[in-house]
Design goal:
The complex is a heterodimer.
Chain A lengths: L1 H14 L3 E5 L8 H7 L3 E3 L4 H13 L3 E7 H5 L3 H9 L6 E5 L17 H6 L5 E3 L4 H11 L6 E5 L19 E4 L4 E5 L4 H12 L6 E4 L2 E3 L3 H8 L4 E5 L8 H10 L6 E5 L12 H7 L4 H13 L1
Parallel strand pairs in A: 1-2, 1-3, 3-4, 4-6, 5-6, 8-9, 8-11, 11-12
Antiparallel strand pairs in A: 5-10, 7-9
Chain B lengths: L17 H22 L4 H6 L1 H11 L14 E4 L5 H10 L40 H14 L6 E6 L6 H12 L5 E7 L8 H4 L5 H7 L3 E6 L3 H9 L9 E6 L22 H11 L13
Parallel strand pairs in B: 1-2, 2-3, 3-5, 4-5
Helix pairs in contact in B: 1-3, 1-4, 1-10, 3-9, 5-6
The chains are: A alpha/beta, B alpha/beta.
C-alpha cells in the first residue's frame, strides 16, 4: 500500500503544482522520487509532529496543498490540538496521512498501535476520514481526497498487501460493495477487510453468503446505503480494528439509534483496553477474536438466527 | 488632558513623528483599558506591555493595506498571544482595518471582536489565536510557503513570553533555522509575568536571546517600550543573513498604569469604573471610541 501511496502522491504532485509533502521524519526511501523531482516541495520537519501540522497549516493558508505524513498513532494523537485548532477550525485543505494504523505495527508495542485514530479524527468538524483497505482503494481514493476543500485524514498500510476484488469502484463518501450476498451485511473499514473476505470464503461451503461492504469513508458516513441495506438484511456485522469508541462501530450505532426500526447490530473488534503481549498482527487478531475464524463464527450465528 | 492630533491615513503614516507615535501608544492603551472594562474581559497586563511593539510594527515596519487587507504583498502577521487582543483590535481600528465603533463590542455577545481573535468572525486577520504555542509554527509554514512561491513578503509573529513554555514553539524554532527562513521575525513580549507566575521562575532564569541563538537564529534584546530602539532593531532585519530573527523585547506588564505595572493580579483582572478613571488620567489620553461617560 505504501508504494500505491507514493505513486498516487507523485501523480497528484505532477498534476497540481501546489501539492507539497511533509514528513515527520518517516518513510525512509519511500519518497525519494518525490524529493528528487519536486525539491523544496518535499520537507522533512524532523521528529516534531506539532510542527508537522503547523507547517502544513501555514502553507495551506498561503495557498499550498499540503500532505502531512507520519505513523498513524503519532500523526493523530500527538498533535491533536494542532490539527483541531490550526487545520480543522480554519477548515484548511491539509491531507493528514497516517501510516500503519490498527495493528500494522503490532510488535512495536502500544506506542505504535493506532486504535483511536479514527475516533480522534472523526471528532473534528470539517474533517473527512478515509481508511482504504487495499492498494486499489489508495489509488482510487487519494485523488478524490485531494479534491476536498477542507482537511482529511487518510491512512496507508505497509508494503505488499494483496488487492481484493470488488463489485464497485471506490467513491469517496460511499460504501463500497465488495461481494453481493443476502440476509446479513458485513461492514468493515481498512485492512481488517482482508480478514472479512477470508471469513466469507470459509463460510461459502456452508452456503452462508453475506454481503460485504468496505466502509472506506467513515466521515461522512454513507447513511443512504446503510438505510437501503437495513431494509434488505436482518442484521449487520461491524468489523473494525479500532477501540469500540469512536470508530466504525460507534458511527454505525449512532446511525442506527435514531432509526424508527433499529436493525440488529453485532461487532467484532478489539476491546476497550491496551493490547499487551508483543504478538504479531496475525496472532493479536486471533487472541482478541478479530481474525477470519472469529468473524465467521459471529457471522454463522447471525445467519442462523 | 492632552489631545491626539496625529493624522492617520495609509499615505501619511510613514511621516508620523516619534512623538506622535508615542502619544498614539498612550491613546491606544487608554482604549484597551476602556475595552476591558466595557467588555468585562481583561488580560490588560499583556495588552499594555505589547503596545509599543505593535505600533512600531503596524505604523512603521510592516507592509499592510487597510483598504485591501489580504493584498498578496502584505507582510503576514500572527498575533499569537490572542488573549491580549484588546491591543491588536485597537491597532486594527486605528489603522482602518475595522470600524472604530466595533471596539465598543469587544467580548460582547455575538461580537466580531471576541476575547480571542477569530478568523471567521474577522476575516481581515491572517490567523486566529487563543491557544498558545501555535503562532511560531504556523508562521514558519507561511514563511516557507512564501519563499517557495518567490513572494518577498515577510512573516511576523508576536509571542508572549509565557507561550515560550510550549514545546511546539521550539519545534518551530528548530525548523525555521533548519530551513533558513530569513523572511521570519518573531517578537517576544518579554513582560516577565504569566497567568499565575513569573516567567523567569518558570524557565529557570534562562535567556531568550541565548536560547534563540542556540537554535540558530539571529536574536537581539531591546527595551520594548522605547520606540526609537524598536524601530532601529526592526530596521536591522534580518539580524543575521540566512537566519530567522528573534526580537526579545523587555517590557513591563500593565505598562503605563501605575497600579497595574508588574502585578500578576492584572493578568486578567477586569478594571472597575474607578480603575478606568485613574488609568485614563495617568495615560493622559482618551480612548479611541466614544462611549457615554468617557472623558473626551
Amino acid at each position: 500500500m505504501r508504494k500505491a501511496f507514493s505513486d498516487s502522491l507523485m501523480k497528484e504532485a505532477e498534476n497540481n503544482p501546489q501539492v507539497t509533502f511533509m514528513t515527520g521524519d518517516l518513510g525512509f526511501q519511500v519518497f525519494d522520487e518525490f524529493s528528487e523531482k519536486f525539491g523544496a516541495r518535499y520537507i522533512n520537519v524532523g521528529v516534531a509532529e506539532a510542527q508537522l501540522i503547523n507547517v502544513a497549516a501555514g502553507m495551506a493558508a498561503e495557498g499550498w496543498r499540503p500532505v502531512a505524513y507520519s505513523i498513524a498513532s503519532f500523526a493523530t494523537a500527538r498533535p491533536f490540538e494542532q490539527i483541531r485548532y490550526c487545520v480543522s477550525y480554519p477548515n484548511l485543505p491539509v491531507t493528514l496521512v497516517g501510516a500503519g494504523r490498527g495493528f500494522t505495527y503490532s510488535t512495536s508495542g502500544v506506542s505504535h498501535h493506532a486504535l483511536d485514530d479514527i475516533g480522534l479524527m472523526s471528532l473534528l468538524p470539517n474533517m473527512t476520514v478515509v481508511i482504504p483497505g487495499d492498494p486499489t482503494e489508495i489509488e482510487e481514493l487519494f485523488p478524490q481526497v485531494m479534491r476536498c476543500s477542507g482537511p482529511a485524514y487518510f491512512t496507508v498500510g505497509r508494503f505488499g498487501e494483496p488487492r481484493y476484488q470488488a463489485e464497485e469502484p471506490s467513491v469517496l463518501g460511499k460504501a463500497r460493495l465488495l461481494k453481493s450476498g443476502q440476509k446479513i451485511a458485513i461492514m468493515s473499514t481498512g485492512e481488517i477487510t482482508h480478514e472479512v473476505l477470508k471469513s466469507v470464503n470459509l463460510l461459502h461451503s456452508e452456503n452462508i453468503i453475506p454481503m460485504v461492504y468496505q466502509m472506506h469513508t467513515i466521515k461522512p458516513l454513507d447513511t443512504v446505503t446503510l438505510d437501503n441495506l437495513a431494509d434488505q438484511v436482518r442484521a449487520m456485522l461491524v468489523v473494525e480494528e479500532h477501540f469500540p469508541n469512536g470508530g466504525l462501530w460507534a458511527a454505525v450505532t449512532q446511525w442506527n439509534a435514531i432509526r424508527d426500526k433499529p436493525i440488529r447490530l453485532q461487532r467484532v473488534g478489539p476491546p476497550d483496553s491496551f493490547i499487551l503481549g508483543n504478538l504479531n498482527r496475525e496472532d493479536v487478531r486471533k487472541k482478541i477474536g478479530c481474525d477470519a475464524h472469529s468473524i465467521a463464527i459471529t457471522c454463522r450465528l447471525l445467519w442462523n438466527q | 488632558m492632552m489631545k491626539t492630533d496625529c493624522p492617520v491615513s495609509p499615505q501619511s503614516i510613514s511621516s508620523l513623528s516619534i512623538q506622535c507615535l508615542e502619544r498614539k501608544t498612550r491613546r491606544l492603551r487608554a482604549t484597551c483599558v476602556q475595552m476591558a472594562h466595557d467588555g468585562g474581559e481583561g488580560h490588560l497586563n499583556g495588552a499594555l506591555s505589547c503596545m509599543d511593539l505593535l505600533v512600531a510594527l503596524f505604523y512603521r515596519w510592516m507592509k499592510n493595506y487597510p483598504d485591501n487587507p489580504k493584498h498578496e504583498n502584505r507582510d503576514r502577521f500572527i498575533f499569537s498571544k490572542g488573549h491580549a487582543c484588546t491591543a491588536y483590535y485597537a491597532i486594527l481600528a486605528d489603522r482602518g482595518f475595522i470600524p472604530m465603533n466595533w471596539l465598543a463590542q469587544y467580548a460582547k455577545n455575538n461580537s466580531p471582536l471576541p476575547s480571542h481573535p477569530c478568523l471567521h468572525a474577522l476575516p481581515v486577520l491572517d490567523w486566529s489565536s487563543g491557544s498558545l504555542g501555535h503562532g511560531l509554527g504556523v508562521a514558519t509554514g507561511m514563511s516557507y510557503g512564501l519563499k517557495l512561491s518567490g513572494n518577498p513578503s515577510r512573516v511576523v509573529t508576536l509571542l508572549s513570553d509565557g507561550e515560550c513554555n510550549e514545546g511546539s514553539t521550539w519545534e518551530g524554532a528548530m525548523f525555521a533555522a533548519a530551513q533558513q527562513l530569513e523572511n521570519l521575525l518573531v517578537v517576544v513580549d518579554y513582560n516577565r509575568i504569566q497567568s499565575v507566575g513569573r516567567t523567569d521562575v518558570l524557565n529557570g532564569f534562562t535567556s531568550f536571546e541565548e536560547k534563540f541563538k542556540a537554535f540558530g537564529w539571529g536574536a537581539k534584546t531591546i527595551d520594548g517600550h522605547h520606540l526609537p530602539e524598536i524601530n532601529d532593531a526592526l530596521n536591522e532585519f534580518p539580524f543575521e543573513s540566512g537566519k530567522p530573527s528573534a526580537l526579545i523585547a523587555k517590557t513591563t506588564a500593565g505598562r503605563g498604569v501605575s497600579f497595574m505595572e508588574d502585578q500578576v493580579l492584572w493578568h486578567y483582572r477586569v478594571p472597575s469604573g474607578d480603575d478606568v478613571k485613574q488609568a485614563l488620567e495617568e495615560l493622559g489620553e482618551a480612548p479611541l471610541y466614544f462611549r457615554e461617560g468617557n472623558p473626551s
